[in-house]
């Protein structure tokens, strides 16, 4: 695999495919340590630097050129906003010929632990503080490009295994989702949507069922990444941090997770008393419910989430709209047809 420095333009990204690699680094595998549940591995460069390499497969080899162009544009935006320590920088990327995939190269910081791994070893961690740091990273992302006809940067892959911990316990958010790519997994027959469905907003799981639902930007849900999707995923990740459980922990197959999400069934902690001691108070639960609202346009914005996490009693306790029973039955039936 050849590693390429991030191109400045999509045209340059296309020329890299034709002219082969321009910024070549030798990456040697090291014994795998952290990140065993993800597609990342620890590696060393020819200059002796330790890095983290994550492989992401193209959804279609025939569309590789277009996908690399789109990826390069999104990567350039990420580079422009990763000056703060809230976000994991991407140092380089590589294009693999067989199987067709992109490899993302980022710094290996500390022990390379995710927040879920860190919590298991440090159960006394101030989890609410970690949740605040994660929410601040999302707020920074969403606010960076806010302006007239300038959409916010949507992360698209917020979950516990993509939140990393520095020495000392502070958190930062990992790589963004590649809209034209699918993570390489051990089970290639399972669609990528299923694999991360525990954290995904229902309108991303079944866009057709939400085609009449407005989103936070005034348009209607169509499967494209939007900030309201991030808010839903952020709530699921905060739930994961505070409880130590993945959302819908009771299900081992993601198809059942998808069915519950489309019915509007929210995650519940495995041990409520333990979760309360870790910070899942009634006010925080109300906040999560507001972030999990079924209608995408009704979810809180990241700025509001940050404010409420700092002063939980300020949350608006207005009940979220309940899912209409008829639509709930339709959504559940659709989930069974599509995913079971």
Can you give a write-up of this model?
This protein starts with a strand and ends with a helix. Strand 3 (40-44) and strand 4 form a beta hairpin. The chain has helices at 10-19, 64-81, 115-121, 127-144, 192-195, 202-205, 227-243, 254-263, 272-277, 282-291, 302-310, 325-339; strands at residues 2-4, 28-29, 40-44, 50-58, 92-96, 101-107, 163-165, 171-173, 181-183. 38% of the residues lie in helices and 12% in strands. Strands 1, 2, 3, 4, 5, 6 and 9 form a 7-stranded antiparallel β-sheet that branches. It has a two-stranded antiparallel sheet with strand order 7-8. With 340 residues, it is an alpha+beta fold. Helix 4 packs antiparallel against helix 11. The protein has 2 domains: 2-107, Phosphorylase Kinase, domain 1; 115-339, Transferase(Phosphotransferase), domain 1, CATH 1.10.510.10. GO terms for molecular function: ATP binding; protein serine/threonine kinase activity. Residues 28-327 form the Protein kinase domain. This is Protein kinase domain-containing protein. InterPro entries: Kinase-like_dom_sf, Prot_kinase_dom, Ser/Thr_Kinases-Pseudokinases, Tyr_kinase_AS.
